[in-house]
Amino acid sequence: MFNSLTGTITGKFPQKVYVDTHGIEWDISVPDSALDKLPAVGETGRVYTWMQHTDALMVLYGFASASDRSLFLDLLKVDGIGPKGALKIMSNVTPAELQAVLDSGNVDALEKIPGVGKKTAGKMLLQLKGKLTLESGAPASRASSVPYASVVVALANMGYDRRDAEQTVADVAQTVASDESFAKLKPSEKEDAVFRRAIVELAQ
User: Residue 199 has what DSSP assignment?
Assistant: First the structure.
């Protein structure tokens, strides 16, 4: 089985890219997050692949990096998440955000991710908490560079621009860090407080 395809990017569409390798054009299903990471149409790019082959169908899935493919395969370990569901999840949340949400045990934030329901959220926590493979095939660190990533996920799923949400949440987190009353709150209460303040900031 092949590990990756390197060729000319000939088309980019929602959850889809075309790659031409010496006259053979491959139709590859990808998470939307891969579209920005891969080179522009007409340029040469490398797509890491995984093939689903059954009696009824054959689908080639692609990723911008080996670590993104590893995350996809981790998601497939969860009962109830198939390849299409995994792509939908990866299209709506970054690996770092997903890791942070899982490690915090925030079921409510997981349920808000498109493609994840209440039952699936519980299964994801059971199967993946502290076990995601994000870098070079090694288990991911529990640390995340995105503060209050679950809050960012919730805001993004409400329609706010992800980058604006990340910056606003980071600013709010920095502001409340020196607040003694905030420091006494439980983790879930801190998330709620940051979420409420971020909503106000984004609404201005």
Answer: H
**Residue environment code for 33-58, b if the CB has 16+ CB neighbours within 10 A, otherwise e:** bbbeebeeeeeebbbbbbeeeeeeee
Give domain limits for the chain.
4-64, 67-139, 149-203
Domain spanning 67-139, CATH architecture: Orthogonal Bundle (1.10)
Tokens of 182: 């905030």
Tokens standing for 23? 């006259």
Alpha helix (H) residue ranges in 81-161: 83-92, 95-104, 107-111, 118-128, 149-157
Within 10 angstroms of residue 181's Cβ, the number of other Cβ atoms is: 8
Q: Which residue carries 């870098």 as its tokens?
A: 135
**pLDDT digits 0-9 by tens, 121-163:** 889 988 888 777 565 444 444 334 556 777 877 777 677 777 7
Q: Give one DSSP letter per residue of 17-84, joined into a string.
A: EEEEETTEEEEEE--HHHHHHSPPTTSEEEEEEEEEE-SS-EEEEEESSHHHHHHHHHHHTSTT--HH
Equal CATH topology for 4-64 and 67-139: no
In this predicted structure, what is the pLDDT of residue 142? 38
CATH number of 4-64: 2.40.50.140
At residue 53, φ and ψ (nearest 5 deg) are: -130, 115
3-state secondary structure of 122: helix
Q: Which DSSP helix (H) or strand (E) runs through 94?
A: none
